[in-house]
Specification:
2 helices; alpha+beta; single chain
Length: about 120
């Protein structure tokens, strides 16, 4: 792994850990099982695995976020399937972005969630 790649991976891990620490310090409860915490997301089922996209590069910030979100959706789909790959349903979703020169670099992180399907009896 090149020095720059190792540095980027290290920054990504530090960002994920800092995000988790900030959530804990803020008094937010993270899902302890496959359901979202009470009062946070009624009607949704969430996974307890935090998914982070790969670092995405673009000339514009919006495009870097869009690419990071798309990669997050791919990572969630690969791990949990199509029911959990929608960024709009994700819990504690956030971006981590930086700028170096004329390029923006972003990652997207969140807990994947899906709508709970109601069963008619």
């Amino acid at each position: 792994m090149s020095g720059e790649s190792a540095s980027t991976a290290s920054r990504t891990r530090r960002f994920a850990l800092a995000s988790l620490a900030a959530a804990c310090l803020a008094g937010l409860t993270l899902p302890a099982d496959a359901r979202a915490p009470d009062g946070v997301s009624p009607g949704r089922s969430c996974k307890t695995t935090y998914i982070a996209s790969h670092m995405q590069k673009a000339n514009k910030l919006d495009r870097a976020r869009q690419k990071a979100r798309g990669n997050w959706e791919y990572q969630a789909w690969r791990k949990f399937g199509g029911k959990y790959d929608d960024w709009k349903k994700a819990q504690l979703a956030q971006y981590g972005c930086s700028k170096k020169g004329k390029h923006h670099f972003c990652i997207a992180e969140a807990y994947p969630c899906s709508q709970i399907e109601e069963v008619e009896g």
